[in-house]
Amino acid sequence: MRRQMSDMEAEKSINIRDGGEMAEKEELLHKNNHQRGGIRTLPFILANEFCDRFASSGFHANMISYLTQQLNMPLVPASNLLTAFAGTSSFTPLFGALIADSFAGRFWTIVVASFIYELGLIVITLSAILPHLRPLACSTQVNCREASSSQMWILYISLLLIAVGTGGIRPCVVTFSADQFDMTKRGVASRKWNLFNWYSFCMGLASLSALTIVVYIQDHMGWGWGLGIPTIAMLLSIIVFVLGSPLYKTVKRHGSPMVRLAQVVVAAVKKRYEALPQDHKLLYQNWELDAAISLEGKLLHSDQFKCLDKAAIVTEEGRDPNAAPDLWKLATVHRVEELKSIIRMLPIWASGILLIAASSSHNFVILQARTMDRHLVHTLQIPPASMSIFTVLTLMVGLVLYERLFVPFIRRFTKNPSGITSLQRMGVGFVVSIIATLVSAWVEIKRKKVAAKYQLLDIPSATIPISVFWLVPQYCLHGVAEVFMVVGHLEFLYDQSPESMRSTATALYCITSAIGNYVGTIMVSLVHKYSGKERNWLPDRNLNRGRLECYFYLLSGIQLLNLIYFVICAWFYTYKSVEEISTLNNLQDLEQDKENISSVT
């Protein structure tokens, strides 16, 4: 008996020593992380993101002009190539998010992806500098010799590298910035500034700089400098980001969220013939297992999609309390509700696809601007791609007015701290987007009337005596639509997604752009193919002989149907229910304090 007691005491002392060593290691790691992060990391992260956005905006803004004027591509294939490229660039963030969340971490994902992006920019810059990598110049834009297959393959390789690099950068930068700060409700409330406001302001400033400086250089100094400057800016962003690495806070990864969703599906399928208990409290719950993925609160059981609840049924095989659960056979209620939250979000998420598809007409608006009088003064012209400045300016000013004026005013009537819900915000954005597309059609009718008056319909390179500022209202309306729809869409996905899957929600938002761009490509191709040969809506060369206004009317009708679909989905949507754990933590702290007082006494 004494021997057994001595063995138990020895084992207990070993466990205490091991536990103490583990606690010391965790405390050292926590102390090291506590010393990192904070506001001192912002100059490095925001400088990196500023240069990155400057490079990407300068590259994307005027590419339609590069393809049609430097590579002599027809209008519709060039527009489809850019739309497909934008779609691919918006789809790759899903893979980037999975890689970062599963094993690589956000820091190394950003660094490696940035190098891949830089390599793509170098390739396309060389193609713009070296004459044998592009076809002969064609000033008339009629019967031009198009780029050869080898020249086009160089373009494809560069675009592919840029798309892959974008996939690693886009889903990680925002969340990596948030990792450096205390993003709990108490931490956010203690700061007098908002991280995401600073982030959005820097992104807007970078886009404005690119749309003014880079686009002007591309149109007046050549594409060698026009693409070389974004390449240099991207290289600087990598250097600045790596220099700040000793200051960054690291966040421990807790496995891929996609794997957890797959585990719930597999467990539900394996137990599809099991009967659900009458009381949902009998379903499997493990607070310790879910602690790392439910820091803000645990998702409560919902009555929707009950077939998934079967993943949380405890069978005879899983009743051993000492055995670790096989997550491919048994899932917790919290993990089941994670999957339910994603499924509930999908119909609302899908409503943004057609809005992105409608924005594929942006390339045609640039070509409209190129045919119009772009003089600010007698010697200064606005580059066509720089017209997007008005959308960015409207977005930046609109966000400030929305936060400072609209929300306090509307809050008096709705009693909602946010003014209106994210779904209501999206609905307003849909309506404004429809109005913007209708205005685009009316401006196109006006532009062609002036061209016909001066007999310029058959001269595609001629400047029509109508001011390019006729396009400003539609650009501003698109900026207002983004204030409501785009920001509201991202806000909805972030708020309604499970807290452990918010990086994935960012990738999901990017996939909306991907599918929307692919749909836009299909729409442009079908319209070009079936709208006739004599009066084609989207002609290859001469936009003056096209019927672009009909295409805008078609987009308006599609967006109207999409608005009706969205209203129906929003009407039946059920918000997720979360059990806050702050009160529980406070009670646990109180009990701990009582124990400490008792031990001291």
Tell me the structural class.
mainly alpha
Strand order of the largest sheet: 1-6
Q: How much is the average pLDDT?
A: 77
Q: What Rg is obtained from the alpha carbons, in whole angstroms?
A: 28 Å
Rough outline:
globular
Number of domains: 2
How far apart the termini lie comes to 34 Å
Care to describe what's here?
With 601 residues, the chain is mostly helical. It folds into 2 domains: 37-253, MFS general substrate transporter like domains (Growth Hormone, Chain: A), CATH 1.20.1250.20; 256-314 and 324-578, MFS general substrate transporter like domains (Growth Hormone, Chain: A, Up-down Bundle). It contains 20 helices and 6 strands. It has a two-stranded antiparallel ribbon. A hairpin with a 2-residue loop joins strand 3 (375-377) and strand 4 (380-381). Helix 9 runs antiparallel to helix 15 (389-414), helix 13 (333-358) packs antiparallel against helix 19 (548-571) and helix 16 (422-453) packs antiparallel against helix 19 (548-571). The protein is globular. The two termini are 34 Å apart. Keywords: Membrane, Transmembrane, Transmembrane helix. It is a multi-pass membrane protein. Its main location: membrane.
What would you say about this model in short?
With 601 residues, the chain is mostly helical. The chain has 20 helices and six strands.
Features:
mainly alpha; POT_fam; Growth Hormone, Chain: A; Major facilitator superfamily (MFS) profile domain-containing protein; two-stranded parallel ribbon; transmembrane helix; transmembrane; 20 helices; single chain; disordered N terminus; 601 residues; 68% helix
